[in-house]
Write a structure and sequence with these properties.
This protein has 140 residues and is mostly beta strands. Helix content is 9%, strand content 41%. It is rod-shaped. The N and C termini lie far apart (65 Å).
């Protein structure tokens, strides 16, 4: 058996456990992009029970919270413990150009995907420009 000691890892784990409370959740990695009229955000939440995932929206602040619990049976001796446990959370401020009333959330394979459509009034459109001799369309 390989035994590796790293005092800094132990300190980091302790810090995460202390800061990972309901009032100060640890962060979750994310990736966000805009494609085909949607704003898409994916959060990495491996090992999270879907029942603990909470997605909320107040004004333009999107809040995601989840809880990761240890799967180790009670009384079992831990040989290695590098997984973050406790409450995870993230807040995103969404722009006014998004239709926040149409948010969709899906959790699969440890990834929470949120899809927010771009509001119709924020999508690119053509504007007719009148000139002395007629009309001409310009991209807006």
């Amino acid at each position: 058996m390989l035994i590796r000691t790293d005092p800094f890892r132990a300190l980091d784990q302790l810090t995460q456990q202390v800061l990972g409370t309901a009032s100060r959740p640890t962060a979750m990695p994310l990736e966000a992009w805009r494609q085909d009229g949607e704003f898409i955000v994916e959060f990495d939440l491996p090992g999270v029970d879907p029942e603990t995932i909470d997605v909320g929206l107040e004004r333009n602040v999107l809040t995601v919270r989840a809880e990761r619990r240890s799967r180790r049976p009670e009384g079992a001796e831990a040989l290695a413990d590098e997984r973050t446990e406790g409450v995870l959370g993230r807040e995103l401020i969404l722009g006014d150009a998004l239709d926040t009333g149409q948010i969709q959330a899906h959790y699969q394979d440890g990834v929470l995907t949120l899809r927010v459509p771009v509001a119709e009034e924020a999508k690119p459109r053509k504007v007719a420009v009148q000139t002395g001799g007629g009309k001409k369309e310009i991209n807006a």
